[in-house]
Known about the structure:
By secondary structure, this protein is an alpha/beta fold. It has 13 helices and eight strands. Helix 5 (136-151) crosses helix 8 (184-202).
Amino acid sequence: MEKALNFSSSSLLPLAPVSSPSYLPTKLLFSRLNRSSSVEQHRSKALPIRNAFGSEENGGFNGFPSIPNTIFMEEAIGAEYGEGFETFRPEGPLKIDVDFLNDRMQEGFLQRIRYAMKPDEAYGLIFSWDNVVANTRDLKLRAWEQLASEEGKEIPGDDNVERSLLYAGADHVLHKVLRWGNTEDDVDRLKSRLSQLYYEILIKLSEPIEGLKEWLDALATSRIPCAVVSSLDRKNMVDALERMGLKKFFQAIVSEEDGMESIAHRFLSASVKLDRKPSKCIVFEDDPRGITAAHNCTMMAVALIGAHPAYDLDQADLAVASFNDLSVINLRRLFAHKGSTFMELEKQVIEKTPRRRKLTIDTIF
């Protein structure tokens, strides 16, 4: 049976032509490019070189990225109008959007027969890393607190400040909220150190969110494929999953190396890797912005109450306090109103013919 799409994670990354000779070593190639570029270009477009395991060859801190990535950046929601991302094929660039995936990833005949007998396998589950798989809220706050301790500064004990530390970009927090760093060099140094502190705390993480392992075990029993998405680099993300004992439950991972520019793009990339069309995927999120991104991709959204109160998650199709409140039957009910496209019962319309009029002859005497 031919699959509708056959994408690999490497095909999702944007490629850039390089005019330098091919016989030059990779390190030499990029070092010359970096020397010829200006300082401002280096700040705005840092080009890390990674090996197959995701670690950088051109710098780092104990194997961790030395340049802050999207962990402390406010990401775009994406797919507001159903737009997707662009991938490169031998015949040229190919634009992947929501409608394209829903149309091209239709189940084949044999798949529809299987899903009719085992409907749970037709779904694809996508888990956000932040506060759904791991308690990254505490990780970020501890990183900010250690940075303040090293710099001899204090963080105001205010709810708005804490919200900014968790969800706003590091640039905005350092410039507008905390007002640390007088120059751009100071801000870059603080951001770099903040990223290093986060990764130092991350390597000690060994416990997932409560009830997640049991829930993933139930999904594995029902043979429902799962994916996890994050802005972390792949190596540190896989290491964290192995420490928590969760790696075996995820059939797909979307990480920083996939080059996705928004939350919605990561969800679409996960659906491609799971070989499930977006309209058959369910996203587990704790952030209202992630719920919006899931709906933009025609996916269902299950909200985990915790980091955000329940009234901020009212857009979700289902909101639960913990994974212990979930069962596989909840997933079926999310799609109950959609029905199945395989052998649906259809009502036969019978045209009723009008009754024949009886002709009577009135006899006049």
